[in-house]
Amino acid sequence: MASSGAFREVPYMGVIWVVSEAVKRGFWNGNPDWCNLGQGQPEIGEMEGAPDRLRNVLIEPEDQAYGPINGTDEMREAVANHYNRYFRRGKKPYTAANVGIAQGGRLMLSRIFGAVQGKMGYQIPDYTAYQDMMDYATPRLEPVLISTTEENNFSIPSSEFKEVAKNLDSYLVSNPCNPTGHVIQGGELASYCETARETGCVLLMDEFYSHFIYEGRNPGCGPVSSAEYVDDPETDPILVIDGLTKSFRYPGWRMGWVLGPSHIIETLGRAASAIDGGPSRVSQRLALRALEPDYADQETSALRVMFSKKKNMMVDRLTNMGIRCLESESTFYIWACVEDLPEGYNTGIDFFWKALDKQVMTVPGTFFDVNPQPGRKEQQFDQWVRFSFGPSYDNVDLGLSRLEEMMEEVN
287: burial class by Cβ within 10 Å (0-12, 13-18, 19+)? Predict the structure, then answer.
């Protein structure tokens, strides 16, 4: 029998741990008796105002073969056109050479971490998968934590980024941010991009929630992307990472992309030749239909309307339970502090176990304390919870009702 010492200890991603604990109690995906307010995917079914879900694809003979490492020419061109239509009117356009395709967002991030080196800045809280990706990129990579505060919505002001970027080779951030729901946009985002040009610090912008944008209690007018503030797609040190997983509600297709200077796209393709071998031709053929302008506009507009309703419901009801919610301008998450709840409910992990008894799943905040090794040992965000309004409206409603009943029992 092989020694367990042959494998390193791999950390759980927060959502995976939550699901594994719920499964022990009878949860399975789609179980109507459960409310997964921890889920990292949006609802995937038919939705009011949205176009019909895409359900079929004709597989051509050439689809049986390996495809190009960075994606088919048609798919790369479609992604470039998608961004040019939203963000590059009157500006130098992206071309197919500025686009790389991968079988999902985490795989695209894996390609990036397979090639990146030097000092990489990051903030917390942020997407849990970054930690292990940083770990397996050592010793090429030196992660550098840039501190944030609740007063700044756990984000780094552009004026501060201008200073710290001088000492970094790259900076990675989810924007819009998972888990906080904060989005760097407008002048702040323009300043970030200008700093990248001035310093050469490569911006690695994980924009998977780019269309989940809200203005107060109303749906936003459209998506947010650093692509809008790129001067020259061929020279600006800015990578835009996104896909169909969140904003188009097709997580099972595993379809992600990156936009940036063509020489970096080529480098990431070379990394892909060893990491994954390139994306599925079938998935790309289907994805072309989702990116058709009329379909894309109808889908993402309906998404903002529906998810704005769910956000408002969740914020109102969590607040009434005595839970402090960080202002959310994007994503389908609420980052909330439970410190004012009664003893036994006032940490993320305590709240998780109590909610699990009600067949409601949440994600303790400590999972978003990205802490690559070797590094600091103190644990942060132990009184924070990420709540998801990704499920359908009725399921979110039911989950909140169960949490309300739970808190009524102790008050």
Answer: buried
Same domain, 170 and 267: yes
- Given a contact cutoff of 8 angstroms between Cβ atoms, the answer to whether 332 and 311 are in contact is yes
What the block records as the tokens of 203 is: 């911006």
Helix (H) or strand (E) holding 381: none
List pLDDT tens digits, range 360-390.
999 999 999 999 876 776 778 999 999 999 9
3-state secondary structure 83-146: HHHHHCCCCCCCCHHHEEEECCHHHHHHHHHHHCCEEEEECCCCCCHHHHHHHHCCCCEEEEEC
Q: How far apart are CA 39 and CA 211, in angstroms?
A: 18
| Same-domain check for residues 284 and 225 | yes
Domain boundary among 248, 276, 296: 296
Q: What is the pLDDT of residues 202-243, one digit of tens each?
A: 999 999 999 999 999 999 999 999 999 999 999 999 999 999
In a domain, 120, yes or no: yes
Residue 396's alpha-carbon distances to 5, 27, 270, 286, 352, in angstroms, are 43, 16, 43, 30, 16
What is the per-residue pLDDT for 8?
A: 82
- Which of 304, 331, 314, 316 is closest to 219 using CA atoms? 304
218 plus 347 within the same structural domain: no
CATH assignment of the domain containing 271: 3.40.640.10
Kindly report, residue by residue over 163-211, the tens digit of the pLDDT: 999 999 999 999 999 999 999 999 999 999 999 999 999 999 999 999 9
C-alpha closest to that of 326 among 125, 180, 176: 180
Residue 43 inside a domain? The answer is: yes
Residue 119 falls inside a structural domain: yes
177 falls within a domain: yes
Residue 1 — pLDDT band, cuts 50, 70, 90? very low
Which residue range is the domain that position 258 belongs to? 61-296
